[in-house]
Each structure stands twice: as C-alpha cells, then as structure tokens.
Amino acid sequence: QVCPRLRTPRLPVWLCGISGRHSVLFGTDSLLLSDWKRERVFHLYFYNGQQEQTTTAHLTIDTHSHHWEEDQSEDPSGPEKRRPSVEMAIRTKWAGATVSWNGTDPFF
C-alpha cells in the first residue's frame, strides 16, 4: 500500500528522465504546489546521482523574464544557444522561463 504522502507530496518533486538518465528536480517551497503567484521567481534543486555531479545544483527559475529581448539576429540553433537538457525539461512546465545555475557550471 502506498502512503498518502507519496501520492500527494508536501513539497514539489519531479522525477525526470533526461538524456537517458534518471534524476530528481525538487523544491523546498510547499506553496509552489498550490499558489500560482509563487511561480514568478522560485528555486529548484537538481540531482542526477552521477559521479560527475558532486553537489545538488541550486537553480533559480524566473518565469517572467524578458526572453523575447534576446538578440534576434543570433542563430537560435547555434552552439552559443545550446541549452542544458534540464533547462529544456523545466520549460516543458514553465515555457519561456530563464534558469540561473547560481555559480554552478551547467551540465548537459
């Protein structure tokens, strides 16, 4: 039997399959699950359990950033525009969000 807290977690938790690897994306703000106003700027943590990741990545998500102000003359498929897979996964829920890695080197 599954515990009720596993079906309805107190904190936001997403199990992800990114680039063929299982990982966890989670937050520490329980109101992120129930208050849409909390989705403006918030923090998530990412852990994939691979040996190259020695610490949990602390990400700041901004869903109201001005992504449309990026230089339109740049090729969006160019190598300088390549985004980490975890950022693309986050954007499946929050389209257009910017992700700050807070000093951690983004990994793909």
Largest sheet: 5 strands, antiparallel
Give the mean pLDDT: 82
Number of strands: 5
**How many separate structural domains?**
1
SSE sequence, one letter per element? HEEEEHE
Strand order of the largest sheet: 1-2-3-4-5
Distance between the termini: 37 Å
Radius of gyration: 15 Å
Shape: globular
Strand content: 25-35%
Give unreliable regions as ranges: none
Tally the helices: what do you get?
2
Helix content: under 10%
SS-derived structural category: mainly beta
Task: Tell me what the structure shows.
9% of the residues lie in helices and 26% in strands. The longest helix is centred in the C-terminal third of the chain and has 6 residues, at 85-90. A five-stranded antiparallel sheet has the order 1-2-3-4-5. The chain has one domain (13-100). The chain has 108 residues and is mainly β.
Nutshell version of this structure?
This protein is 9% helix and 26% strand. It is mainly β.
